[in-house]
Amino acid sequence: MLRTLLSPRLLGLHLLTIGVLVAFILLGRWQLGVFEDSGKPRSATDPAPVAVATLAQVGAQMSGESVGRKVTAEGVYEAGGQLLVADRRADVDAPGGNVSRGHGYWVLTPLRLDDGTLMPVVRGWVAKDSDPAIASVPEGRVTVAGRLRPQQGTDSVQRRAEGLPQGQVQTVSTGELVNLWSGRQVRTGYVVAQPPSGPLTQVKVDPPVVGGELTWRNLAYAANWWIFAGFAVFMWFHFVRDAVRRDRDRGTSSPEMVLEG
């Protein structure tokens, strides 16, 4: 049997089968990778800036398509309503609350638009609430460019047990801002200024992304390649088995065995 398995004819079959198996397995892995990558979030189209009033309404939820969009806002900053969003890093996607305690503050200033409504603007970031840059609010009419973000729920962060000092908030919540800026109409969401408005550190905010759609066809292709690999092993087994049987039968029917009979 060993002589049959190591015969030149079957050695070629062994090598061919190994090559086919490696190729089919790698092709299956490639298709599986394509399938996995298809489900990852990817950058969406980034249209030109639009006026913030067209996307951020008063008393209405922000649509998902508006999140991360480039916007412009023209108006006057109301320095008297400025707040600090405590326990924040210089990145809108970084967690807030106790997990970021002591890591800095967002400087949140209301921008009064021409129609009298207020648009919350995160002008930038500071490491300490005593930073003199906080008081450097641009005066007069300004044009702010940035990206629009949805409001944050008041329960989205773990709050401090002892509360916050006056003039500080934990989240950028439209409902909370309506109470703090009483008697004013506040547009939903907030704008992260790009570049920062005043001598502040830029708060990082990414362009909009969309969730990927899984391409199940590629998963089926991967399964097909592995099925082909299994079929190759099946065919190899049958070829080898038949060769061993033929050699065994040939040996039992040799002339020496006939004479002995």
Spatially, the strands of the biggest sheet line up as 3-5-6-9-7
Share of residues in helices: 25-40%
What is the makeup of the main sheet?
Answer: 5 strands, mixed, barrel
Q: Please tally the β strands and state the result.
A: 10
**From the alpha-carbon coordinates, what is the Rg to the nearest angstrom?**
34 Å
Which regions contain 5 or more consecutive residues with pLDDT less than 50? 257-261
Overall shape? rod-shaped
The run of helices and strands is HHEEEEEEEEHEEHH
Total helices: the number is 5
- Proportion in β-strands: 15-25%
How confident overall, as mean pLDDT? 86
The helix/strand class is: alpha/beta
Measured between the Cα atoms of the first and last residue, the distance is 24 Å
Draw up the topology in text.
Elements: H1 2-5, H2 8-38, E1 42-43, E2 50-51, E3 70-77, E4 83-86, E5 105-113, E6 118-126, E7 141-149, E8 168-169, H3 174-180, E9 190-193, E10 209-210, H4 216-252, H5 255-260
Parallel strand pairs: 2-3, 4-8, 6-9
Antiparallel strand pairs: 1-10, 3-5, 3-7, 4-5, 5-6, 7-9
Sum this structure up briefly.
33% of the residues lie in helices and 20% in strands. The protein is an alpha/beta fold.
